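Input.
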Amino acid sequence: MKLTKIFILIFCFAFTSAYAQQDSVTLNNIINKTKRLADEQPLEKVYLHTDKPYYAVADTIWLKAYVTSQNNVPSPLSKIVYVEMYNAVDSLIQTLKLPVKNGMAYGNIPLPMNTYKQGNYYVRAYTLWMLNFDSDYFFSKNILIGEAINKQLITNINLTNLAAEKSIKTTARIQFKDINKKPLANKTVNWRVFHNYDVFTRGKGTTDANGYLTVNITSKPDDPIKKGTLVADVSMGDKSLASASFNIRQNDNGIDFQLFPEGGELLLGVPNQVGIKAVKPNGLGTDVKGTIIDEKNAEVGTFTTSFAGIGSFFITPEPNKSYKAKFTKDGITRTVDLPKAKDGIIIQATNPAAADAINIRVLASAAFLEANKDKGFYLIGQNSNVIAYAAKLSLKNQVVNAKIPKQNFPSGIAQLTLFDEKSDPISERLVFVLHSDAMNLALKADLPTYKPRQKVKLTLDAKSKGQPIAADFSVSVTDETKVPVDENSEVTILSSLLLTSDLKGYVEKPNYYFNKTDEKKLADLDRLMLTQGYRRFSYKEILAGRYPKIFLLPEQGITISGTLRDLTGMPIRKGVMRMMVTGKPIAKEITTSNVGVFNFTDLNFPDSSQVVVTARSNPNYNNLMIMLDGIPSAAKGTNLNAPDEVENIDTLMSSYLNNSQKQYRFMRTLKTVEIKGAGIKRPSHSDHAALVGLSQIPDRFIDGAQLSGCNFLLECLKVQAPSFTFDFNEQKFYITRDYNQGVRTPAAIFLNGMFVDVNAINTVNANDVESIELFLNDPLGTVDRTYNTRGVIVINSKKIPKGEKMSKQDFLDMIPKKYEVKYSPMGYSKERTFYSPKYLPNAPVTSNDLRTTIYWNPKLVTDEKGNISFEFNNADGKGTYKAVVEGIDKNGNIGRTVFRYVVK
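Output.
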């Protein structure tokens, strides 16, 4: 792992040897306890490079995971990374488990029609080691998915919110068009709004001559719809319906205006820089400008935002005065109080782009200087919990200046903290360090322009500080005419590993700061450092010896562990355990420890494999039972980048979806054919007398096919049934809306008509489930009164087909054996190779090549000269093609380059 040298400096050194010794002890204590944190709890980060920013249903997301540790070197810790796909209401859709080698992993996410529909999604990635820390630092990226197959509607929606007493009224103006972009006039539309997984309201209307429909939604008092869904069903005239769904996010249109004094406090009698941040209710920044006034309404300064609602201004507060920021936005004038100025000491920083050092100023008010003159203070600079700078200084004047060489820090966020003589942190400043020569990449093509289907040869040249480097890269080439994107909004290896992975909260358009970086963008980045949260750890806690608790170690591979016991519960020492993967030449045999524990390590099997763990090789095995350990998993995700969600996907992705319609027109698709005849009755709750009082139509129906690939039914049910909340401590399900209001009446669970507890769910193989029916109400109360429950979860197993009579031995073989466990733990996701067609010159054209991703290669490694070449063939599209290369070297230097070429 790369080591960072700590520079210890002394300013205004005028202490006696006793004081100097004490200062050294204090400074070393801060350094050593912080170093212990870095050594014992090194940070990991994950970044995913995907081939495109958005997709259509039936596409495949190609990705490469970069797993890094301190100073962004490829992580030697975790050997597995998890990638999750969530929808707009935070329901988990899919999980990948990828093996990590040398900090790299490769994967893909198919987007099948039966699982995905048009909407906003986000991908989340992490290692188990990262579960020890705040989930805000997981990798997260929004993914748009559009619909191009069997599409019937093109929609456009405009939402406006208006505060009405304690409620919020939302007006949705929706235009409906057919696939040929012709307005659907005079069509009946039935709509409903879902809130907290229930139907909040519903209505019916008719589109006007231009295909528009207006829907009004008013929230309950003091209960705005934060994550609602509006579903509209349009009657198409041929007895068929076409549906569209939209996100509803109610807010009061107010602006959140915040002030952030540099260093944490506003000091009396000295120039202070104050950061400002103006945010709309949707989470996006908004431009404002205004004035600073005192208590007599006299103007003492002005301010304006620069980018994404962020800016700053300077003020020198005077004693016995108060100040306010005043601005007008959308015709409404507001004033916000500045923090009260006080006596104290703060740290300020300027970070000139062309300079080799960060300029530091430690400022003290006059009264603070008089009371603390000649006292010692300490300045610590760290990046990713690794201290790169330490200094002790003596306060002799109101201003103490210092310069910190930027070379002390790697590229990324440097946290500068000022401590008093008691080791209490009293002021903090974030500074962004960017070494432009850390990694320089250049792509060049073998020809100035190309023709459709012509072979292209690109050569990558990688250098660090002017010297060739061997590094690991991934490359994506797309047809930019079909896949246009705002580069400022992209999530890149630079914006992720250097910026957002170390910041709490949402950062708007993070790649803006790295896209053609200039002095203005670096100044905007410095203002972001003034206003954004950063709390990887608390100095007060670690200096008191209270380190974050670690409950998971870095994963070194797939493991299966548990305990072997006899039927009385006593552990079996030196017991023989055998593990096999059905249908594969994978088997292991081990013996249990003195306390009956077994642990199969370094396993490698694909996902959806059936694993058999057995104790049959032991004497008297019929009197033994196996208890498998649980598998840790991350808590349910929330979208940190929700402000970037897009409502009008059809408009934004029009070029892409137009191409996808043509592309998938050539795929072999089958239309649904209705065959009338005697239907086979599927198992349902109505088959059981105890449940006949429930509604014939459940509030939510989960088809067994939706559980494909599910290893543990309970875990899948938690995700697939968002209208119910699972309480881990109580091991019970509750209706979500009741649970959020403090009601703790559990839901009833029925398995094939029998009332069971939650533990019975995992005894059911997900492949044997016909359906799951969810009921939020029991109209007759027959279930609720009998079992003192509220809400019903009904699990229906598939009917066993009629066949020959079963022998007693066959029946006994079907009964689960305590000494043997058969289950399907999550294995590694299958790695696939991206298909890139090769065309011979002047070959006859037999089909259209409508690819949008022209080339994807996640395994580019430069040689000792820093070079590598790769070849591929263009598609049929003409226009500009865009190649993006991202990567990292063994020293943690990160690089990205974009190259465009023309196809005529």
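DSSP finds eleven helices and 53 strands in the chain.
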